[in-house]
Amino acid sequence: MAEILVLVDHVDGEVKKVTLELLTLARSLGEPSAVWAGPGYAADAKAKLAEYGAEKVYVADDADIADHVVAPKAELLAQLVGSASPAAVLIAASQEGKEIAGRLAVKTESGVITDAVGVDSDLTAELSIFGGGVNVKSRVKTGTPIIAIRPNSTAPEASQGAAAEERVTVSLSDSAKAARVVERVKQEKGARPELTEAAIVVSGGRGVGSADKFSVIEELADSLGAAVGASRAATDAGWYPHQFQVGQTGKTVSPQLYIAVGISGAIQHRAGMQTAKTIVAINKDSEAPIFELADYGVVGDLHTVTPQLTEEIKKRK
Amino acid sequence: MNIVVCVKQVPDTATERKLRPDDKTIDREAAEGVINEICEYAVEEALRLKEAHGGEVTVLTMGPSKATDTIRKALAMGADKAVHLVDDALHGSDGLQTSYALAQVLKKIGFDVVILGSESTDARMGTLAAMLAERLDAPQLSLANKVEIDGSTIRIQRLTDYGFDRVEASLPAVVSVVEKINEPRYPSFKGIMAAKKKPVETLSVADAEIDAAKVGLASAATEVVDFAVAPPRAAGTIVKDEGDGGVKVAEFLASKKFV
Ligand SMILES: Cc1cc2nc3c(=O)[nH]c(=O)nc-3n(C[C@H](O)[C@H](O)[C@H](O)COP(=O)(O)OP(=O)(O)OC[C@H]3O[C@@H](n4cnc5c(N)ncnc54)[C@H](O)[C@@H]3O)c2cc1C
């Protein structure tokens, strides 16, 4: 069976859930080979990749790879596409993942599909475009299909693989090292599930009113084991860090449940959450466009409705 | 400094956007064409770099002839001149081909900095800056919420999942910006009038030394095989808070087994 390369998404040595989803999907397309790029590779990570079916693990864990923007990872993958001739390359559709996919497509003269929500056994990809308005099936006609897949598109299922380790050396070209990361600035916000991976997301908008009041959103999120998101109005106001922004220029999320609190539902916000399975809105304006999407909505003041909801959820536990 | 800002005309997101049943490409006639919002931020940043460092801002667009509206908008904001890559042969080009075509033009016109918006609202790939950097063998400084140029060094803050990276490179470079970077100016009346007289050079595929066999629908590396309008979401239940709004939501969540 043909190899399917899966680029591993990892933070601090830990394999992200989306990678387990991609490995699960890869098993239905061929034989998954995980590709580890950058430092942090260890036994735990290998075990995780094996558990979800990686038959091979290519490891290139030089610091160099992470110290330059995007290009080194594309170079590594291009080298592996050359040596392993995989049937496809799967990458998580994060902003960086899509950029890696783009550069890899140029390097290997291959077609690239981004934001797929599914891939059939014949490598036809399913997409949801125009803010969820149109469902599309696309395929790559040229080269090695490179497909960036949205988190939460497949349920991860364990199935042991051999995870045969193969060390890879890449001698990075000068152009891959042209954009140097000189400093990483971390702005963490608690130990909640990752926004794009979470089954439930609770987002706050301008209606929340202040950074302090975001505690109302966080408490609701914690009662549900949810991730916290924010609208642009809330991130621009400095109430919540930018990486929690949901929407056109923020994260695209497809959770089982999305709760929008004090968010009007502007088209740019909807672009990032429209594919959530169930949508709940709390807003004082009955005309707010978010209600057009909502499966359930309450017209009321979020400062009373939300804490009451949090209390009620805790009571029912 | 020679600053080139890439802009794209897209179907207005406020209208219903469609694919064409015949060749399954975006229907650019069905909806009004407007400048892709995030491109305005790219134009603004280009103008600010020019104001700080001198030089010239050139608008570059690839698109049908009606994309001149989008070019005029960028010129009215203050860009100096424009290049419009327009040719029927380009119709249906995918991301890979578009990056090839634009890279050919950029090689021809030269640049110190190319600035783009992080993604377009129609295709939403978010890959063009990366692809151009690859093709032009220039540093990729993408997803910037801050750009600084100091002599031949360019520094950006690149937004990441954990915060941001400070990234440094030497010019020439390819930059993409997010909407956090600035607040785009509105064109003034004077700007709108002046834009009408600013030079817009149109280039065909041949003019730009683009291999016609490598662009357009027939040779695209990807194809849409099928599409369907998504069924509309079923109308939801909207209640007014009568003092028990929170409890009501909890009941709904319980009925869906979320609690
Ligand atoms: C290029 C570009 C990119 C963008 N990208 C994004 C993006 O990625 N994500 C994004 O979110 N936006 C994005 N936007 C911005 C978007 O257009 C909206 O401005 C933004 O989403 C508004 O945020 P909001 O809903 O929180 O604020 P508002 O639109 O001001 O809505 C606030 C809502 O809160 C309600 N409210 C106020 N007080 C209360 C209360 N006490 N109780 C209950 N409800 C209350 C109001 O009724 C209102 O509906 C982008 C814009 C541009 C131009």
Automatic annotation (TrEMBL), chain A:
Any one GO biological process: fatty acid beta-oxidation using acyl-CoA dehydrogenase
Record domain Electron transfer flavoprotein alpha/beta-subunit N-terminal: where: 4-185
Alphabetized SUPFAM superfamilies for the sequence: Adenine nucleotide alpha hydrolases-like (SSF52402), DHS-like NAD/FAD-binding domain (SSF52467)
Manner of cofactor binding, per the entry note: Binds 1 FAD per dimer.
InterPro entries (UniProt xref): DHS-like_NAD/FAD-binding_dom, ETF_a/b_N, ETF_a/FixB, ETF_alpha_N, ETF_asu_C, ETF_asu_C_CS, Rossmann-like_a/b/a_fold
A GO MF label: flavin adenine dinucleotide binding
Keyword Cytoplasm carried by entry: no
Cofactor: FAD
Keyword Phosphoprotein: no
Pfam families attached to this UniProt entry: ETF, ETF_alpha
Binding positions for FAD per the UniProt entry: 206, 231-232, 245-249, 262-269, 283
Highest taxon of source: Bacteria
Protein keywords: Electron transport, FAD, Flavoprotein, Transport
PROSITE patterns: ETF_ALPHA
Gene3D superfamilies cross-referenced by the UniProt entry: HUPs, TPP-binding domain
Subunit structure as annotated in this protein's UniProt entry: Heterodimer of an alpha and a beta subunit.
Function of the molecule: The electron transfer flavoprotein serves as a specific electron acceptor for other dehydrogenases. It transfers the electrons to the main respiratory chain via ETF-ubiquinone oxidoreductase (ETF dehydrogenase).
Family, per entry: Belongs to the ETF alpha-subunit/FixB family.
Name of the protein this chain belongs to: Electron transfer flavoprotein subunit alpha/FixB family protein
UniProt source species: Bailinhaonella thermotolerans
Automatic annotation (TrEMBL), chain B:
Function statement: The electron transfer flavoprotein serves as a specific electron acceptor for other dehydrogenases. It transfers the electrons to the main respiratory chain via ETF-ubiquinone oxidoreductase (ETF dehydrogenase).
Any single GO CC term annotated in Swiss-Prot or TrEMBL for this entry: cytosol
Ranges for domain Electron transfer flavoprotein alpha/beta-subunit N-terminal: 23-212
Keywords: Electron transport, Transport
Family membership: Belongs to the ETF beta-subunit/FixA family.
GO molecular function terms noted in the UniProt entry: electron transfer activity
Keyword check for Ligase: no
Cofactor entry: FAD
Protein name: Electron transfer flavoprotein subunit beta
SMART domains: ETF
InterPro entries: ETF_a/b_N, ETF_b, ETF_beta_N, Rossmann-like_a/b/a_fold
Mitochondrion as UniProt keyword: no
Record note on quaternary structure: Heterodimer of an alpha and a beta subunit.
Species of origin: Bailinhaonella thermotolerans
PANTHER family with a match to the protein in the record: ELECTRON TRANSFER FLAVOPROTEIN BETA-SUBUNIT, ELECTRON TRANSFER FLAVOPROTEIN SUBUNIT BETA
